[in-house]
Design goal:
By secondary structure, the chain is α/β, with parallel strands linked by helices.
Length: about 180
């Protein structure tokens, strides 16, 4: 689990083995508690970052099991002048592709973008510039046995943000994963 330790180190955390904080400090004294998932559910944390000065963006995705063990990480760079919301939607799509390719059946998505969560909650067609990304995300979510999504405060999404930042340093998408069996 060396790469999980690396992701924890990138986020400024020092943990032995898997990265499993029980509490993550929040802004304004708020504590964000880690919630255990149901057996067989994979949590997908996503985030996107922009560097408008250089015309690049990065998306990050981290998959963890019900114990908080890191199962896979995706850092995907790109070149374009995206809006912050488009970058977050692209992080969602990239993360969902990563989960389908990894063979996960039950996924719970966490994003610190309220716009992503509101768009996923809506039953109406999204006619914004991000509408195609929302439709692709909805299509991908139907590939899973179950797929839920929730808002996570920025404090609870620091690792995915760190991975997205690291994507800016890469020329091509970078994957890290552990070979495992989900029962």
């Amino acid at each position: 689990m060396v790469w999980c330790y690396c992701v924890a180190s990138l986020a400024g955390k020092k943990y032995e083995g898997s990265w499993r904080p029980s509490f993550i400090g929040g802004r304004r004294g708020r504590e964000v508690a880690w919630r255990r998932l149901e057996h067989g559910v994979v949590k997908l944390n996503i985030d996107g970052v922009l560097d408008h000065q250089n015309g690049v963006f990065g998306t990050g995705a981290i998959c963890k099991n019900e114990n908080g063990d890191c199962l896979g990480v995706l850092a995907a760079p790109g070149t374009s002048f995206l809006s912050p919301h488009s970058c977050e939607f692209l992080a969602l799509v990239n993360g969902l592709h990563f989960c389908t390719q990894s063979g996960f059946a039950r996924v719970e998505v966490e994003s610190d973008s309220q716009q992503v969560i509101v768009a996923l909650d809506s039953s109406q067609e999204n006619l914004s510039v991000d509408g195609a990304l929302v439709e692709e995300a909805n299509f991908l979510m139907r590939c899973f046995e179950s797929c839920r999504w929730t808002y996570a405060p920025r404090e609870a999404n620091k690792a995915a943000h760190t991975v997205a930042r690291k994507a800016l340093e890469h020329e091509f998408p970078t994957y890290w994963w552990q070979i495992f069996q989900i029962s």
